[in-house]
């Protein structure tokens, strides 16, 4: 397939690396370009005057082509929505107060227990199909609503089925340490032992997870526990992706740095020390989830300061029923620009190439590069790239291509 007369072909890269600091603002584009796809992969691209066949199969005049979104942090597998808590929040209860009275993650865990594996799979598959139509072309999905040996394995098996049935690449993360389950209320150590000595060996043997995650937060898991769990994951070959500094300065960034995490995610509550750590060359990806801050009416992560200090930033949806009941990456792009003052180029890089790095999928997706999957978005006729985050809520997508289809 040959697409011709593309007004702007965005994020075109012959070579690449993880984008830090000012590099996030550099989005390579080609104007009046063509894109060629063979066997589901990008085989060529270039300026229109360099193509011998100017007719092509699809005329993209006036329209932009950009890589699909790489959503590196989601909780896509869950049993049901939690709009009753949404009402509680409107009435003034905080996320922590809702969690303390048995809502939140524990509420989702109760519902998951009553839901069959097949039903969970169908619901998640349905959500994933909708996300693909909204431009998501690679995704990470966490467990963490099982909170028992059987429950966590059930979630991870659902994610494995999604991997096998979906056309987009998927990474699975074990988040058994998402909350202390009710039955273990007064037995933290026993629950951590269950995660490390019983659950991890089984899921590793069955190849059910790529990464390990811990909710490192006051009232959830301490930095010491986070380290212990992540080190155990590491011994089974699972790199860490940590829920860090969402509700408080939790020590999650330091834990992530010391365990060599692939990413530390959230970062609504960070200070100078954490920002400095994240600017180091070997620091984990700082994954920002502005739709969770939006939904919970919390302060947004300090994206500008992070960029100034050379952090590598990815943007992800955090799609989950409690703090971000939307996986819409287009809206997220607008939130990143409007609320965190990221420039459109920075936000697009963070939601594509850096998102791919946060899932170790950088050789498959995240940019328009020869040999990568032909996963890209074709927009409707739009005036410019900046129009995409500017026109928040508008559906400017004409078509989403996955593996060239
Ligand atoms: N903060 C922890 N986990 C999710 C929320 C999960 C839930 O509320 O169900 C998050 O990333 O925001
Ligand atoms: Zn999350």
Automatic annotation (TrEMBL):
GO terms for biological process: L-histidine catabolic process to glutamate and formamide; L-histidine catabolic process to glutamate and formate. The keyword Ion transport does not apply. Its EC number is 3.5.2.7. N-formimidoyl-L-glutamate binds at residues 145, 320, 322. Fe(3+) binds at residues 73, 75, 243, 318. It comes from the Bacteria. Zn(2+) binds at residues 73, 75, 243, 318. Coiled coil: none annotated. Keywords: Cytoplasm, Histidine metabolism, Hydrolase, Iron, Metal-binding, Zinc. It is found in: Cytoplasm. 4-imidazolone-5-propanoate binds at residues 82, 145, 178, 246, 323. PANTHER family: IMIDAZOLONEPROPIONASE, IMIDAZOLONEPROPIONASE-RELATED. Catalyzes the hydrolytic cleavage of the carbon-nitrogen bond in imidazolone-5-propanoate to yield N-formimidoyl-L-glutamate. It is the third step in the universal histidine degradation pathway. Belongs to the metallo-dependent hydrolases superfamily. HutI family. This is Imidazolonepropionase. It comes from Leadbetterella byssophila (strain DSM 17132 / JCM 16389 / KACC 11308 / NBRC 106382 / 4M15). The lineage of its organism: Bacteria, Pseudomonadati, Bacteroidota, Cytophagia, Cytophagales.
